[in-house]
Design goal:
- The chain is an alpha+beta fold and 301 residues long.
- Helix content is 47%, strand content 18%.
- It folds into two domains: 147 residues, Jelly Rolls (Sandwich), CATH 2.60.120.280; 102 residues, Homeodomain-like (Arc Repressor Mutant, subunit A), CATH 1.10.10.
- Strands 1-2-9-4-7-10 form a six-stranded antiparallel β-sheet, covered by helices on one side. Strands 3-8-5-6 form a four-stranded antiparallel β-sheet.
- The longest helix is centred in the middle third of the chain and has 24 residues.
- It starts with 6 loop residues before the first helix and ends with a helix.
Length: 301
């Protein structure tokens, strides 16, 4: 017997299946192929490592689940067409509105903190980057009319290719590569005209290494400053201490592991560098107000 679900629930299931270590899926008794079939029925198109969804409603339990971080195996280019949303991408918060473009690289740490009920966006999903963009970071193009006009053309051409009777994967790959490189070139032009900022470099390091690297000295050495100078700069630019930023990164990583894996709590603690499970449980409860086990059980309701 076939089952029907709201599109935002289906997209949520899809995102969980294709997120890091998403092996615990048993939501509404759908397997990955069924979820993918439902997505296709609602307009999702895919071929190999690439996919596109046009004009999707970005509800609270939809394309991004609010308040739940994850590391995406795939990359995404999300184009906001209506409404507003707030996304945290690699620990940096972005308030997006119509015309803004978020480019998330594979393995980005992503969390939606606020999505308007009327928010609509189109997105492309990719698992392979062109070689020229292999080291690129995630970024956002905000209020850039040129980028918005160009990305809409790419989306239209990519969607048309997916809807042809014969899908030519080579053409789709070239369109995706051109889209990513074009958006990256526009972003490069923007940052070339300003100082990208010490704080951005610190947060990027933290988003990459925060799971395993907790000492302040590690980040100070990588940024070629003293620990005291690092502390002063971070507090003056963000209003938060270095330790608060490190704790923030640890909480995000802990939630990813609790949500997307079946790791025992002791293994999660060890993966995150805690000396004992009890010290991890104490830290997590102090930061979130609940224990890791309760948090995991709440997600399965």
């Amino acid at each position: 017997m076939s089952k029907s679900y709201d599109l935002d629930i289906i997209i949520y299931i899809f995102i969980r299946y294709y997120s890091q270590n998403a092996i615990t899926m048993n939501i509404r008794n759908l397997d990955a192929q069924t979820a993918l079939n439902e997505l296709v029925r609602h307009g999702y198109r895919h071929a190999g490592d690439y996919g596109i969804m046009m004009n999707a409603r970005m509800q609270a339990n939809g394309f991004f689940r609010q308040g739940q971080p994850y590391r995406a195996v795939d990359g995404r280019v999300v184009v906001v067409q209506q409404g507003k949303m707030t996304l945290e991408i690699d620990l940096e918060e972005y308030r997006l509105q119509e015309g803004d473009i978020a480019v998330m690289m594979p393995d980005a740490l992503v969390m939606a903190t606020d999505i308007g009920a009327d928010s609509v966006a189109s997105a492309v999903i990719f698992r392979r980057l062109p070689s020229q963009a292999a080291q690129a970071e995630s970024f956002v193009l905000s209020g850039d009319d040129v980028a918005y006009s160009r990305v809409k053309l790419y989306l239209a051409m990519i969607f048309e290719q997916f809807n042809r009777n014969t899908v030519f994967t080579d053409i789709i790959v070239h369109f995706f590569d051109a889209l990513i490189l074009d958006m990256l070139s526009l972003h490069t032009e923007v940052i070339a005209s300003r100082d990208d900022g010490f704080m951005h470099r610190f947060i990027h390091l933290l988003s990459q290494d925060g799971r395993e690297k907790h000492p302040i000295d590690f980040y100070a050495e990588r940024l070629c400053v003293s620990p005291n100078h690092l502390s002063t700069l971070v507090r003056s630019e963000s209003g938060m201490t270095v330790l608060q930023w490190i704790d923030r990164a640890l909480v995000r990583e802990a939630k990813v592991l609790l949500h997307h894996t079946e790791m025992p709590i002791a293994e999660v603690a060890d993966t995150l560098g805690f000396s004992t499970p009890s010290s991890f449980i104490h830290f997590f409860k102090q930061q979130t107000g609940t224990t890791p086990l309760r948090y995991r059980k709440q997600l399965l309701r």
